[in-house]
Amino acid sequence: MGEALFYHLTARTLEAAAPEMLEKCLERGWRVTVRAGSPERVAALNAHLWTWRDEAFLPHGEAGDGFAARQPIYLTAGPETPNAPDVLFLVDGAQAQAAEFAAFLRVATLFDGHDAAAVAQARDQWRRARDAGCACIYWAQREDGAWVKQAEAGPTGAGPTGAGPGGAGPGGAGPGGAGPGGAGPGETE
Questions:
Q1: Structural domain for 92, as ranges
Q2: Cβ–Cβ < 8 Å for 64, 75
Q3: The pTM is what?
Q4: In CATH, what number is assigned to the domain containing residue 44?
Q5: In what order do the strands lie in the sheet with 87-91?
């Protein structure tokens, strides 16, 4: 069973945080599908990832670019994962089905902590992942944009360590953790 990671964006935008996370995935040899909540977000990410840093770009594509199966990072607003990804990113309210949590090493939900609807959707996603048997890890951003692990729930440890997404926020330098139970984003136990 994979891990479900929740990243509560409060100090930095998706455009600032996601490219660094995607770059780390590629450094580990992982393929990624980014599932966005709308075709407009896919188009914006597609343009942004080519120019996000002056000295680098992230190799990626979307359905209209062709060669979908060969893309290291595939962008979509739909359910398809043609590049056989190791990691599924969910942004702008995109959701994963319960069965998808077992299909990937990691499912990472990045959500806007300033949007009450996005926090509520992250809470629902947390419960769905936890109920599917995933280890769930919730990361929050500090004011400087660094990630701090705030909560864990799931089958790999001795117990929850705090609130899930929205409580203190998902984020962090990396995944980890364990604990059965655990509150979802914005909740406390």
A1: 3-153
A2: no
A3: 0.83
A4: 3.40.50.10110
A5: 61-62, 73-76, 32-35, 87-91, 106-112, 3-9, 135-141, 147-153
What domain count does the chain have?
Answer: 1
Question: Considering the domain boundaries, does residue 32 fall inside one?
Answer: yes
* Tokens of residue 133, six digits: 């048997």
**Distance linking the first and last C-alpha atoms of the chain:** 24
DSSP state string for 53-101: BTTB----EEGGGS-GGG-SEEEESSS--TT--SEEEEETT----GGGG
Integer angstrom CA distances of residue 73 from 6, 44, 109: 19, 15, 16
Angle between helices 39-51 and 14-27 (to 10 degrees): 70
Quote the tokens at residue 52.
């996000």
Does 185 reside within a domain? Answer: no
66 belongs to a structural domain: yes
174: confidence class by pLDDT, cuts 50, 70, 90: very low
| 188 falls within a domain | no
Residue pLDDT, tens place only, 122-160 = 999 999 999 989 999 999 999 999 999 999 998 754 334
